[in-house]
Design brief:
With 434 residues, this protein is of the alpha/beta class. 29% of the residues lie in helices and 22% in strands. It folds into 2 domains: 152 residues, FAD/NAD(P)-binding domain; 200 residues, FAD/NAD(P)-binding domain (3-Layer(bba) Sandwich), CATH 3.50.50. It is built from 10 helices and 24 strands. The chain has a 5-stranded parallel sheet with strand order 5-2-1-9-20, with helices on one face. The radius of gyration is 23 Å and the shape is globular. The C terminus is likely disordered.
Amino acid sequence: MLYWDMAISPKIENRADLPHVVIIGGGFAGIATARGLAKKPVRVTIIDKHNFHTFLPLLYQVATAGLEPADVAYPIRTIFGDAPNVRFRHARVRLVDQRENRLVLEDDSVLAYDHLVVATGAIASYFGIPGASRYALPLYSLADARALRNRVLLALERAEVASEHSSVALHFVVVGGGPTGVETAGALSELIGIAIKRDGLDLDPSQVRVKLVDLAPRLLTAFPESASTYAKKELERMGVDIEFGRSVVEVEEHAIRFSDGERLEAAAVIWAAGVTASGTLAQDLQASPGPSGRVRVTPDLRVLESANVWAVGDAALVPADHESFCPQLAPVAIQSGKHCARQLLRVLKGEETEPFRFKNKGIMATIGRRAAVAKLPVGGVIKGTLGWVAWLALHLWYLVGFRNRLRVMINWTWRYFDWPSGPRLIVADAETAD
């Protein structure tokens, strides 16, 4: 291929003879794949229903008024502004036609590809629990984060009015004791406390409760038990009620029901109980997808029985070894995206591909201001302020865009010493304000 040794330039970017790689999804995996192909002799088109990349691990801070939406999102076009071979298309994919190597978009337009990378991510898994998908609040998009922030702040405002006539008990229930649930519960407790203190809400803090429930016997089951114990102790110190072995059987508009028959009225039910690829485009790629609708792939990340369709990140059932698969985590998404880009280039050069190997760099979870746990690949668990600093440094490193890093660093530094007024704004559409 004569074009392979050419330096990419604005004059080359529209050459029709360059192989066309289409990436569906602008999350961690999709962006990592595109970055690996930037300024290479290929045409790249990223398709996403949003024109921005969202840093999902910090959504809970947007939801709890710690950060602004712009702090955790960055325009995809801006990310690749210096890569003339990478283009973005704001659209939804309706159909993948693998026989004809083309995509049909929602506006019925058709986009042909030479190679396709499916990086559509995952959505909240409600496990078929009645009412959960309708009434519980997930936390997997900026819209989710804004909806949760509006719900919490509106509930506090309305509770103050109601408290003028009688004592009001207000419950916020977080379902799920993984990192998202722990981080959300801690931040929510801090938000409620500071809103009452700084915003002058006439509410009894003891009447406003955050409850975290999980079917598991402890928090953060992917961490060592010492980290779980520390997280539980810190959350309880912050006033969070924690209940293990609780099975949710129904979510109502303003209540939640458990298997033991208890019905608890709740101002909001926050769903952090797991994710799935079922119900996404990825599930439709194969007649028999893997668990949770994830795409079955070969060790080099190509879709089974396909030579030019690849799947990465949460959408893919990425092999960890002969018997297990990688978890649906951001590090896996980033590493699998980078690996996919390298293998695509090898295929285009006529070289053999290499299997994906996940490098575990550790896991982290923040519990609140100045408290976090971090499990590194080598060594024990880092807890407390040191763990919080490690968590902060890692998340700042992976944030897209210098402007975002600077804004977040200033906000976090300010929050460490004192809690500023913050973006405790109810900015809602008509349907979310109710």
